[in-house]
Amino acid sequence: MACPFCEIVAGRLDASVVAQTDYALAFLDIRQAVPGHVLVVPKAHVQDIYAITPGLAGEVMQLGVRVAQALRETFDSPGLNLWQSNGAAGGQEVPHFHLHVQPRRVADGLLRVYPHGAPSPSSRVELDALAQRIRRLLPHDHGVPAPRSIP
Predict the structure, then answer these.
(1) Annotated catalytic residue: which of 37, 45, 96, 98?
(2) Does residue 148 carry a pLDDT above 70?
């Protein structure tokens, strides 16, 4: 089965395009969880966050930031979610990296991060040990383009 996001990028499936760059495309999700629910995807097929290059991820995020700013102005929403899922256990439904950008209102019913209440804080010893484990396996920043000028 063909990737629906690749089909949208190629113009073979319809989409309500919001914005695009040379490397990323933003369009309205066909299933509007909230009005203004936008998906931002790389134009190249990339399955998930584990396969995307840092440079391409930066392009997708930069377009996501532009979309977020437009959504805030369009909907006068007091909040916003950026949501990105990987693999079936993470809730990824389309195996093409995508960033959900969703304007939010209090009690809109869309998402509760801790449906059973926030967990108790972990101890600093536990957190420091976990951070050390993660740091040991953190990839180096090979292939990351130099940052663009920041105002």
Answers:
(1) 98
(2) no
